[in-house]
Amino acid sequence: MKFLILPLLFVITAISFPAQSSGQSSSPPALDVIRFSWSKERIGWERDPFSGPIENFQEVQARTRNERRIQDAKRGGGPEVDKIKTEAKADAANIATQHKTIPARYVFLYKVTVKNTSTKTIRSIDWDYVFLDRTTESEIGRREFTSDEKVSPGKSKELTVVLAKPPTQTISLTSLNSNERAGMIERVSLVRVEYTDGTVWQGP
Q1: Nearest in space to 182 (alpha carbons), one of 135, 149, 150, 145
Q2: Which of 14, 21, 50, 192 can pair with 126 through a Cys bridge, CB separation 3.0 to 4.6 Å?
Q3: What are the structural domain ranges in the chain?
Q4: Nearest to 27 by CA among 189, 199, 202
Q5: Nearest partner of 89 among 112, 69, 111, 115, judged by Cα
């Protein structure tokens, strides 16, 4: 048994050394969270009244096909020109109606401003935007982000992420309600910081 235990102890000791020299630190990072916020942005509804319609690939194909049919009919001199023009106008009117009935889309903008108070340049930051119920302080939502941004020593930088996913299930995807955040506490949690020299801070 002694001959079996000794090699096993040697293996365990050998495995434990790389973890101690991995370059990771669990002490608080030299990175300050200055401010953070989130907002709901309505997109796809404001259009330049002097610009043409916004078409997808299939709609462009249909319009081009109708224009070609009209040109071919004109060259042929037949009575089909008026009929084709009427069909093309009907297609265009149908497309315009579809554009009007498409609901406005919303995206969610998450932002945090951090300041690097260390002497090393940051390469990447993993951070979570956390939402808590104001009454129970239980977690009701969490959005996890990775920002590959260089932040030099002593410098601040705003990290921004745009998602279609709302902060919590209680936030509406189709309406804008200024009272939606009233019952929530918001926090930003730093999860991991990677530096350009290869060292890493890992949160607990």
Answers
A1: 135
A2: 192
A3: 25-43+104-202, 57-101
A4: 202
A5: 69
Do 43 and 106 touch, CB atoms closer than 8 A?
yes
pLDDT digits (tens, 9 = 90+) for 24-75: 655 778 899 999 999 888 776 555 444 444 555 566 667 777 777 777 777 7
* Cα gap 112→103, rounded to integer Å: 30
Is 0.70 surpassed by the pTM of this model? no
The answer to whether 177 and 132 have CB atoms below 8 angstroms apart is: no
Summarised one tens digit per residue, pLDDT across range 161-188 is 998 888 888 777 666 566 777 788 999 9
Select the CATH number that applies to the domain covering 25-43+104-202 from these four: 3.90.226, 2.40.50, 2.60.40, 2.40.160: 2.60.40
Q: Are 143 and 94 in contact (CB under 8 A)?
A: no
CA count, 13 A, side-chain hemisphere, 38: 27
